[in-house]
Amino acid sequence: MSEEVKELKKKLLAGEENGYDTISAEDAAAMEDYCAAYKIFLNRGKTERECAAEAVRLAEEKGFRPYHRSMKVQPGDKVYVCNRGKGVMLAVIGTQSLSAGAQIAAAHIDSPRLDLKPNPLYEESEMAYFKTHYYGGLRKYQWVTIPLELHGVIALRNGTTVTVALGAEEGESKFVITDLLPHLGSEQSKKPLSEAIPGESLNILLGSRPMGESDDTDRTRLQIMKLLNEKYGITEDDFTSAELEAVPAGKSVDIGLDRSLIGSYGHDDRVCGYAALAAILELSHPKKTAVCMLADKEEIGSMGVTGMQSAAFDTFMHDLCESQGVLLRECYENSFCLSADVTAAYDPNFADVFEKKNSARINHGLGICKYTGARGKSGASDASAETVAYVRRLLDAADVIWQISELGKVDAGGGGTVAMYMANRNIATLDAGVPVLSMHAPFEVVAKLDCYMTYKGCKAVFEAE
């Protein structure tokens, strides 16, 4: 190939370089430090409540203070609001008025899991169980025969709240959902994956040691309640006002002989939530006000008072705008939002559901998605060409390694993010995030390079003029 053709090819054709071919030595070192901190965040945040609490703790270490209505804020001020313990909104006030808009990164910190039912405890054949109701789009067969932990809160009649974390500490007993042995599973094996494990069979085994006399009833159930009462001071009635979540046990770990990947529960979407959080924590005096939104309930449609469809975000932004004498609608129409959510990474083991040319690749950087949705773009905000070009300029100027992709083949399925809810507010919005292998599984995998580039991308958005 002649030099002229080489130059023309480089100039005119889109490249598909692996990020490790272009990443600087400085960024490679910073990537390892960043990912080490991210793994700590994952280990401390197994639920949306725990993630919100850790976000607040980190923010306060960086000088953020709780925001309340009518508080006077100045450029450079760092404020936050914790929404009912399940979501967090943070802002660094810019030198420009909010009439010029805000630079927003919105992510979610809830993940697929198993919630306990309102009346969860029962005994069958002298074994005690918790009944569950799965949360989000999980594949039920993946949740059996793996060690589980129980996290959450129990609100008592007297107004106090008990924090629960069972199985989280080293050496603590774990929990499990049993499965059928293959010797007796011939009929089960004939069923589709979606039917082989019914939702009503996702019952968590709690124990098997009875108490009392042999002719007593509910002896194992009573034993379990006795232990819970001793530890937390609760009775069975208190499950009525509890939010307890079963999540995979274990900590985040490096994956691969080269340690280039991270395996953990909850990458979707804490990997992007942490990127947005870490980026805003490093800001000092941005030109435009920077806002980080860590929302709840995305996995079930962003509904409810802590979801992205609630008025909580609007109230926060309205209060900030009012303090500057700015109309909220004026702020929104001049704002930009990076909907920081994960995308599917191309997996050669399941190549038939991906369209390779338009799939996100591991180690190719931050994955931009012009639209998400299903099939005919249903449920997508579908960013404009001008919005995508704006983000391209920001990322290139900040030396962010990035790629553009779709979720999978057009008719293979699809998914959504919070992008449409931000766009519905008249905020220019674009999806971007980390490509994930085994998305929504109890153990997901991401590349360290992509994690770090997502952080750099959020930082570029916050620092934009």
Write up this protein:
The protein has 465 residues and is an alpha/beta fold. It has 2 domains: 14-111 and 265-462, Aminopeptidase, CATH 3.40.630; 113-248, Aminopeptidase i, Domain 2 (Roll). Helices cover 28% and strands 24% of the residues. It has 12 helices and 22 strands. The protein has helices at 3-12, 25-44, 48-61, 186-189, 193-196, 219-232, 267-281, 312-323, 328-333, 385-397, 419-423, 448-462, and strands at residues 65-66, 78-83, 87-92, 102-108, 113-124, 127-135, 148-155, 161-166, 204-207, 242-248, 253-255, 261-264, 289-295, 336-340, 343-344, 366-369, 373-374, 402-404, 414-415, 428-433, 435-437, 444-447. The strands form 4 sheets. The chain has a 9-stranded mixed β-sheet, sandwiched between helices. It has a 6-stranded antiparallel β-sheet with strand order 8-7-10-5-6-9, with helices on one face. Strands 11-12-22-21-15 form a 5-stranded mixed β-sheet. The chain is globular.
